[in-house]
Amino acid sequence: MEKSRIDWTDSTWNPVTGCYHGCKYCYAKGITARFGDFMCIDGENIKTVPGRDGRVCVEVTHKTESPYPEKFTPTLHRNRLKAYVKKKGRVIFVCSMADLFGEWVPDEWIRAVFEACAEAPQHKYLFLTKNPARYEELEKRGELPASDNMWYGYSYTGIESARYWSEERNVFISMEPLLKPVEVPPADWVIIGAETGRRKEKVVPERGWIESIVDAGRKRNVPIFMKESLRDIWGEPIIQEYPEKVKVSPW
User: How many domains does the chain contain in total?
Assistant: First the structure.
């Protein structure tokens, strides 16, 4: 995608789609339900492969009729790996329609994405996971790049308890959707957002929850970025700060 609607990035790149987390508030699963299809797996261009935890995953070698040929089944689109190699440098959210570091994801898929990033070093890459323990695992094996243009994020909504921190790598936290008051773990950047959509049990964060996050950021000199979903709660002006190493293009 050339221009993303996600306000903290320039573009999204989805060499991997699909997920097994099962979050009730997931927007991505709804998109694949609308625009995806179940095609003939184990055909000429599509095949099933075992996930790292034994669950079914899918690999696609060539462009298919559907952007999500097996809907929300975790899928590696090998034909998308070089999509940004020759494009002008930008900030890219990697796998906005997946969790690249989910327990089911084969190690080979992660290596393939990292190799593609290395082929296009002009970009800044933002990763996001609900399974930051996979970062630690890769780091211990020497397989988590410490490049200055790589940013490793994790979700911290008030429900998840797993954290990640590294002195050698860029780390950010996505508090979206913010579901409870939270303490702010160490990070180089914090993104905050409210749950969107029409889910019956949707949580609307209180202003006080947001204020405590902003106060913690100010004390530690950590940039804070509020998504547009917080405008009605926070008021004007909302805070949208970027780290010096991350500059979204003025499209």
Answer: 2
- At 17, is the secondary structure helix, strand, or coil? strand
SS3 209: helix
Segment (H or E) for 16 = strand 16-17
User: Do you know the residue count of the chain?
Assistant: 251
pLDDT (average), residues 101-118: 98
Q: Looking at residue 5, what is its pLDDT?
A: 86
Contact residues for 236 (Cβ-Cβ < 8 A; gap 6+): none
CB atoms within 10 A of CB 13: 26
Pair (74, 164) in one structural domain: no
End-to-end, the C-alpha distance of the chain in Å comes to: 13
Q: Residue 138 above 60 pLDDT?
A: yes
**Spatial strand order in the sheet of 124-129:** 11-13, 91-94, 124-129, 150-155, 170-175, 189-192, 224-226
Cα dihedral 65, 20, 109, 39 in deg (nearest 10): -20
For the chain, give the longest Cα–Cα distance.
56
114 three-state secondary structure: helix
pLDDT above 90: residue 3 = no
At residue 42 the predicted structure's pLDDT band, cuts being 50, 70 and 90, is confident
Supply 136's token pair. 């630690």
Alpha-carbon dihedral sign for residues 220, 223, 122, 126: positive
150 lies in a domain? no
Q: How many CB atoms lie within 10 A of CB 214?
A: 17
216: which 2 tokens? 């913690």
Give residue 1's pLDDT band: very low, low, confident or very high (50, 70, 90). Answer: low
Q: Is the pTM of this model over 0.90?
A: yes
14, 97: one domain: yes
